[in-house]
C-alpha cells in the first residue's frame, strides 16, 4: 500500500469515529428515557463585589508559601488580609522577596471557580497604587514553579471552590504529606 492510500485510510477512519460519536450524542438527547430538566433556570450573571485595599502588611503576619523548585525568591502572604468575599473571590496580600533584597507586594484576588487572578494594588512603600490594567487573567495550572498555580492547587482552592481563611492557614501550618501541585 502506498503512502497516499494509508493517509486516505487514516482520514476515513478518523471521520468515521467522529461521525459515530456525534450520532451517539444526538441519540442520547432524543432518547425518551433521558429527561431534560425543564425547571432549570440559569442563575444571575456573576458580579464581582467591591474591593477595599487593606493596610500594608505587617511582617509579623506573613506566612511563607512553599513554591517547589522556584527561583531564589521567597513568597509570603499576609494572614490579616486573607478574606473570601461574598462573590467567592479570595483576596490576599502577596509578598515576594527577591534574592537581591528587593520586595514586591501586591493585593490580589483569586477566583477558584474559574482559575483566574486579578491584581488590585501594588505597594509603593507608602500605600497602594492601582495597576494600569487589571483584567482577570488565567492561572496557568501546569506551571509548578508559579506562585499563583501553587496557591490555587494547594492552598486557597479545593475542587474549584474557595477554602475558608482558617482552613488556608491551617493547611499552610500543617501541610498534607503529599503536595497537590
Automatic annotation (TrEMBL):
Report keywords, A-Z. Signal
Q: Which domain of life is it from?
A: Bacteria
The leader peptide range reads: 1-25
Q: Does the keyword Signal apply?
A: yes
Q: Where is the CNP1-like uncharacterised domain?
A: 42-173
Record keywords: Signal included? yes
Q: What is the protein named? A: CNP1-like uncharacterized domain-containing protein
Which species is the source of this protein?
Nitrogeniibacter mangrovi
Record lineage: Bacteria, Pseudomonadati, Pseudomonadota, Betaproteobacteria, Rhodocyclales
Amino acid at each position: 500500500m502506498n503512502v497516499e492510500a494509508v493517509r486516505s485510510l487514516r482520514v476515513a477512519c478518523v471521520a468515521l469515529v467522529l461521525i459515530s460519536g456525534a450520532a451517539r450524542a444526538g441519540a442520547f438527547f432524543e432518547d425518551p428515557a433521558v429527561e431534560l430538566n425543564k425547571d432549570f433556570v440559569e442563575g444571575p450573571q456573576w458580579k464581582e463585589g467591591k474591593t477595599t485595599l487593606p493596610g500594608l502588611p505587617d511582617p509579623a503576619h506573613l506566612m511563607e508559601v512553599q513554591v517547589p523548585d522556584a527561583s531564589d525568591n521567597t513568597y509570603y502572604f499576609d494572614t490579616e488580609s486573607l478574606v473570601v468575599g461574598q462573590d467567592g473571590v479570595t483576596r490576599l496580600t502577596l509578598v515576594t522577596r527577591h534574592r537581591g533584597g528587593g520586595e514586591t507586594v501586591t493585593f490580589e484576588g483569586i477566583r477558584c471557580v474559574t482559575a483566574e487572578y486579578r491584581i488590585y494594588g501594588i505597594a509603593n512603600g507608602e500605600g497602594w497604587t492601582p495597576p494600569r490594567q487589571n483584567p482577570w487573567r488565567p492561572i496557568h495550572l501546569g506551571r509548578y514553579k508559579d506562585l499563583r498555580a501553587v496557591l490555587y492547587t494547594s492552598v486557597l482552592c479545593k475542587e474549584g471552590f474557595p477554602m475558608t481563611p482558617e482552613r488556608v492557614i491551617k493547611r499552610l501550618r500543617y501541610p498534607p504529606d503529599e503536595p497537590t501541585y
